[in-house]
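Work through this protein:
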Amino acid sequence: MKVVKGGKVSELLRDTKIPKMFRARQIFSREMIRPEEIPAAVHREMEKENIGSRIRPGMSVAVTAGSRGIRNVDIITKAVVDEVKARGASPFIVPAMGSHGGATEEGQLAMLAGYGITPESMGCPIRSSMEVVELGYSERGRRVVLDKNAYEADGIIISCRLKPHNAFRGPYESGPCKMMTVGLGKQVGASIVHGDGMDVIAQNIPTMAKVVLEKANILFAIPCIENAYDETCRIEAIPAENILEREPELLKYAFSNMPRLIVGEADVLVVDEVGKNYSGTGVDPNITGTFSTPYASGGLKVQRTCFLNLSKESHGNALGCGLASAITRKIFDDMDIEQMYPNCITSTVLASARIPCVVSTDKEAVQICIKTCNKIDQDHVRVVRIPNSLHIGSIMLSEAYYEDVKAGKYPGLEAVDEPKELEFDGDGNVITKIEQG
């Protein structure tokens, strides 16, 4: 694609005014487990009755690790591995990430390495393969498969994050059941789970998870939950036979800890960085409102959204950019179709992989969103800027919000400084930091 800086597009956008912005702080409940406290928290959970006793000396134990950018995932995974070792068993890690990493064993290893999960750092092997074994069929008639390495272990520990999903709603969203069916199902299993459409996935996950629990050597799950600041706030071990009952209860707790953009509505949302480490769709639509399907809703009510950068951790997977109004040439140039398309082929959701308007600079991405908004006051445009969808404690707001924030209209939202012009470098990249410093 030919994207020309200084061409006709630049000419049409040149005089579009970007409003002054001010820094703001969002304040949420902050129950948390500090990183240095995590090994002890994992130890306490695995010491519980009917949990650690399931690990016996000499057993081979598969420990799952997923593709999301879970806070402290390396510390949590290492703590689980160490507890398995302490009981005389032999742990190994299995990438449980469906079709992510380009649906290759090398790509999935690279994703884990990006999170600090390597054989050296974890002190145990990582067995990455896309090979699966068939376990049977669910009550809905769907074939259920499982990672071959995990299946052949004497026991499996489901280590994962539990949180609301970005494309559907149900009692089981992102958590142990999804990890068992989609993550450990690899590309084949993930494709089956998603194959009926996002309106049915909430039925497929628990019915297929039942088969996994019946046919595979699942010992227990140990999901973590994060608070509104993307910090670990809860770790709980669940015996295999209690997962189907307990997971929906923990999902309610996870929903109660979700952050939000307190202003609720905006004309334009600017996201500095997107990527698979933040959400399966680059940004979490539960925050940004950019949903890929009609089967989930919420987040910011906004007319236009632009993305400025793609994270290195995504390895070129820019899935989710199709939900933006505009992206920069930087993102477009970083896109790797071989990383993106296996995901949307597997999920059957193509909207996330579409190409939105591509402009040459950060400045033009913001300008094209402002200029194309309908029925707004161009002199008082409401703009929200966030670093990414996981870290929204510190944000920037346009001056249209300033007086209301100062007057206390938005409980939990504080102005940190006064509105000032955003600064851009000679290449049109925004250089004003969201956090002071």
The chain has a mean pLDDT of 95. The longest helix spans residues 201-215. The chain has 15 helices and 16 strands.
